[in-house]
Amino acid sequence: MNFIITLVTFILMEGATWVIHKCLMHGFMWFLHKDHHDHSALEKNDYFFVIFVIPTIALI
Ligand SMILES: [Zn+2]
Question: How would you write the pLDDT of the chain (60 residues) with one tens digit per residue?
Fold first, then answer.
């Protein structure tokens, strides 16, 4: 049962990250994400770590 829960969680999270990357980061948050694809030394994209940690901490 634990293996199934782990597998389902992995599959759902991969789907969620794909949708978040496609729809949010390449959508209205493109102004933060654009330099990530330009491979600059300092990236605005690093703000996503702050943005995504807020709901993570809230859920913990
Ligand atoms: Zn991207």
Answer: 999 999 999 999 999 999 999 999 999 999 988 888 887 677 788 888 888 899 999 999
Tell how far the Cα of 44 is from the centroid of ligand 1, in angstroms. Answer: 12
Number of H helices, E strands in the chain: 3, 0
Distance 33 CA to ligand 1 centre (A): 6
CA 52, CA 60: separation in Å to the nearest integer? 13
pTM, 2 dp: 0.65
CA 37 to centroid of ligand 1, rounded, Å: 6
